[in-house]
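To: structure desk
From: M.T.
Subject: fold request, one chain
Message: Could you run this one when you get a chance? Sequence is below, nothing fancy, just the single chain.
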Amino acid sequence: MKMKLKLLSLVLILSNVTPLTAASAPPNSQSKHIAKILSRGDGRSEETAYKVRSVRDEYEILDALGLKPGKQSLVIRKRPYDVLEATDPSTGATRELWFDISSFYPEF
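Reply: Done. Structure tokens follow.
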């Protein structure tokens, strides 16, 4: 029951996030906040995950890197992580990006 409440909370959090669109932000633009997150990790692993404050941060990072989102997974280890498969539209190459979501994911 407790896990169902946590998952429901996550769904509610995610449902309140408006995805970025071309109209809402120019491609590859970075706020100081996003630049700071990018400077503190590379998102390639759990150890170097981007530490974000919201799902919106995740999508702003993808946009700043010029990547398009694909599959998304919730991974629970010592901390909760969103792992997104992202594609570079210019090359078609895909990669995983790790996001530490412990600052806003419900305690478990």
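Reply (cont.): The chain is about 30% helix and 25% strand. Let me know if you need anything else for the meeting.
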